[in-house]
Amino acid sequence: MTLDLSLLPDGGVRWLDASGAHSDVVLSTRVRLARNVDGFAFTGRARDGERLRVLAQVRDALQQVPDLPQHFLVRVDELGPGERAMLFERHLVSKELAGLDAQHPLRSGAAVYLSDGLSVMINEEDHLRLQSLQSGFELRAAFAALDRIDREIGARVPFSYHPEFGFLTACPTNVGTGMRASVLIHLPGLVLTKEIGRVLAGLQQMGLTYRGLYGEGSEVVGNFFQISNQTTLGRSEEDLLDQLIRVVGHVIEREEEGRRVLLRDAGYIIEDKLWRAYGTLRYARSLTFDEAMNYLSGVRLAVGLKLIRGLSVYTLNKLLIFSQAAHLSAAEGRSLTDSETNLARARYVRRALEDEAGAVG
Amino acid sequence: MVCDNCHERDAVVNLTTIENNAVRQLHLCEQCAAERGVETTVATPKHPLGEFLQAVQQQSGPASADAGKCAFCGLTMKDFRATGRMGCSRCYSTFETSMRELLRRVHGSPRHIGRPYRAPKDDVLEKASVLGELRDKLRRAIDQEQFEVAAQLRDRIRVLE
């Protein structure tokens, strides 16, 4: 099986198009629901045959859902490691489903339904992980899209459900609603003004948590944080969403305030630093991933502060995805060593910025 | 080493600052570091499962009431403590007492008040499973270019739908 992501609008990364609310601060919104099919052991304990039967049941159910936007099934278990890494780099599947996590080798029956902004991972830690990805700060829209497909599948496949505990999941931290709602947010203003520690501590007091760019266990790079609900039980989906909307709204205000303070107190220093970041990206010959992320973070801030004009946020967002190792290897048509990857990354970033360089000022 | 700022608590953070080209080393406790905006936990966010497993480990007493194996998947509480994952939906009933206590600790409440769910009725499922089988056969027939068989299968699927 080969992977053809061109079948999806924008290769499945339309959530980067910066069309949603507050997209200068919030890159994307994701909501996911964890569900299991009754009558089978959870994925980690299921036999190969059980996982294939889960896959067949979900596939049949999805075929019966009316008016489902264009979608297709990718048998992740039949893909090579490079293609699986590309799906992961585009945030379309988790590291676990892609079999890239040392603790979780690739499972037979691992698959994903991909559609515009919507995907259903099959045989992840739970039998189903439905997720909706939207550009900007759009929690309600993301949930609405997901809720519909969840009801449609749940009317055709029996989900594991306990009258007291709610939807049952492999990990008890997901029991109840099975819902994890998160926003990927860029907070350079709070990091540079050293307010970030207080804000993050506040999140935890509110029952929210944060992670790096790639979710659980990933490090914070380039000042990108994923803020999400910590608990899934004892509160309704609407309640959990309302709280996240309220708190993230507050974080956005603090970030904007931080950016104003930076400009007021350190205007020319900041301006100089951010233009240097742009200059490095525009002319460097070798860039590590962390370097690229940090300079991109700077340029993103400069665009948000209107210190650099004529550069689109969409271009910057796409650079975050397409300058990663598996994408660079795919573009070069062969696997690359680390130093080759750094050279290819710098070349890719230079070309992407060159296209818009005429308008930048 | 005690904290350079409060001179009370143990210093856990070494802060290097450069002011007017002079390098200055500060040894701070977590609290004073946080007051200066140095977050010691940014790079290693709190892992909800880590805390959660800790809660499992600390659990004693009622847990032993759930000794035994899940009749469906064979999971024991020992397996669960090792992986942090339940084996199947039946495990939640098998170890219900432990799970209720655990869910209360992890989520603050053991009671689901989100969207209720009713699984589809047996006849719906049966029809879906027959339909699934017919669709499998249809795919195979098309793959093997048995178009007459495929046409019949398609008609049967239409009737059921």
What does it look like?
The complex is a heterodimer of chains A (361) and B (161). With 361 residues, chain A is of the alpha+beta class. Chain A is 44% helix and 15% strand. In chain A, helix 2 (81-89) crosses helix 9. The longest helix of chain A has 47 residues, at 237-283. By secondary structure, chain B is mainly α. Chain B has seven helices and two strands; from the N terminus they run E-E-H-H-H-H-H-H-H. Chain B has a two-stranded antiparallel sheet. At the A-B interface, helix 1, strand 6, strand 7, helix 5 and strand 9 of A face helix 2, helix 4, helix 5 and helix 6 of B.
The residue-averaged pLDDT of chain A reads 89
Q: Judging from the principal axes of the Cα atoms, what is the shape of chain B?
A: elongated
Judged by helices, strands and strand pairing, the structural class of chain A is alpha+beta
Percent helix among the residues of chain B?
40-55%
- Give the N-to-C terminal Cα separation of chain B: 75 Å
Largest interface: A-B, 63 and 53 residues
**How are the strands of the biggest sheet of chain B laid out side by side?**
1-2
Instruction: Write the element-wise H/E pattern of chain B from the N-terminal end onward.
Output: EEHHHHHHH
What's the assembly state of these chains? heterodimer
Distance between the termini of chain A: 46 Å
